[in-house]
Amino acid sequence: MHTLSAEQSIMPMAHSFISLALESDQSSDDPEVALKDPQVFHLFRHYKDSLASWYDLNDRQRHFTDIVPVKARYSPLLLSSLLAFSAISLHNSSGSESWVDQAEFYHLESVQILLKVTSNIEAVVADGEVLAAICLLRSFEIISENLGSQSHLQGYYSMLASTSIHLDSLSNLARASFWNFLREDITMALIERRTLMIELSDDQIPKDLVFDDDYANAITILLGQVINVGFSKAVHKVSAERFSSLGKKLEAWKASLPDSFMPIVNDDSVDRSKRPFPFMGTLHGWHAASIQYYQAAMMILADSEQKMQENEVGDRCAYLNTLSENLSNRSSEICALALSSDSQAVWVNSFGPIAFCTYDLGDRWKKEAIVRGVKCWGSRTGWPISKIVKACERSSQYEIDLMRLYDGQRY
């Protein structure tokens, strides 16, 4: 398949709007001057106060909250990327059309600056500011799905996907950006049930799991590896040993977790129609996200392994019953963790696991509750949720298979 270069994928849009960038008084060419404009500073503050935490979900050092805004005061690329994302977020959450032109304007400025660094992808990866900007622009393209601006950075994504990324050689900001790029890729892969754009290796798993966010990043790599196997078109060719190896890695990760990861659970609800999920509170957002990733990975493995099973009809009924219950329980935990959180970062990161897992949720009350939650989070974060809602409304394939098997036995 022919892969577009970054320059080929960006140029048409850049040329068609270039005059707009040259005429603006709010250009990010001089960040300090631009930030004196009240509207620009409003966008800047909205990013820092409301959006940066999305990126710091698994980062105890808070690079996107504390480091990116400081660097953006002196970096036209970071500032324009930050402002583009902030403006499109305000448009989606408020419904105000006034932010659309601002969003497209700063997106264009970012792309024009990126054209200057297309020749050396290794330098792009090593440069934390550039990688951080690409993460911000990726978010812009995800949540602006109806504005026709997606995929202008596809050339960069293709180049990043083909580049061997050694985390130990990256700056702190570049590493934080890598984890964000990966989580964004995982979110879209789970929603679309596809493999990641990038290949992952065991070398990228944090070796010394000292802090809680180290465990969170480790499960991120493991889930990515599972996605690349389970969603592969050649999954039927994957050996049982490969599935077993991934399962053992997941269980080893789970067994090594500190007590801080254990949710605080309250399952005292009497009326399941009003409160179908238990309360599952966590001490930090990365605790909720990590458990969700673990459960999603286990579900993908179970789903992939069942496709390789060749059971008789009688055995298959029992097998599917057990599998359906297993997947439903894991799906319920993913949803309960999201519904029990008041963190926008957790909600946004939950969209991928929820879109994937509710396929097997089963219970009507649970599906209705999670759809209400998703719609609420979408309105509050500005995230597009139509695909997620559709995923929540689908029936489980295992429920369908069971009904067919029972019908076949009945007659």
UniProtKB/TrEMBL annotation:
Keywords: Nucleus. The keyword Coiled coil does not apply. Pfam families: Fungal_trans_2. InterPro entries: Fun_TF. The keyword Nucleus applies. GO terms for molecular function: DNA-binding transcription factor activity; transcription cis-regulatory region binding. It comes from the Eukaryota. GO terms for biological process: positive regulation of transcription by RNA polymerase II. GO terms for cellular component: nucleus. It is found in: Nucleus. This is Transcription factor domain-containing protein. It comes from Penicillium steckii.
